[in-house]
Amino acid sequence: MIMLHPLDIFTHCPVCGSPRFEVHNFKSKQCGACGFTYYANPCSATAAFILRGDDLLVVRRAKEPAKGTLDLPGGFVDMGETAEEGMRREIKEETGLDVAQLHYLFSSPNVYMYSGMGVHTLDMDYMVRVAPDVQVRAADDAAECLWIPLREVCPADFGLTSIRNAVIRFLDEKPYLNPLPE
What we know:
The chain has three helices and ten strands.
């Protein structure tokens, strides 16, 4: 599959419809007719490392890309949402959990394949701790929810490269060993 960049796909100005929509620089196109400049900036995305004691909550992807592989709860931040609001919404949609405290960990650039187009994202990863008796249910993009002991988490089981890399970083940096702020 050939990965197309949005600037390769968009051939006409979205404002005036002119075909004089030409490369302006590496991240933008400009219309030679009306002057509009479109910047291909990254979309915001989130993922959650949800811990119940020493167990990590993972979901099995119900949809492509990487259908059937492991994933972390998360997804795209909607317009008008903060990253934290988007993270809470995605956790609720995929697992049924209502979480209050999110602890930001790190971010990384990513390219998410969608309908043959590479969507550039900025992935923001959070850590969440939940009570031992918490109940989860798979929904939305999650086919199932699984609790895996941290010592048994295998990054190769995660189908999306960005999530796999985040899991490797999480396991290497071990932020779960640090006390969380109140």
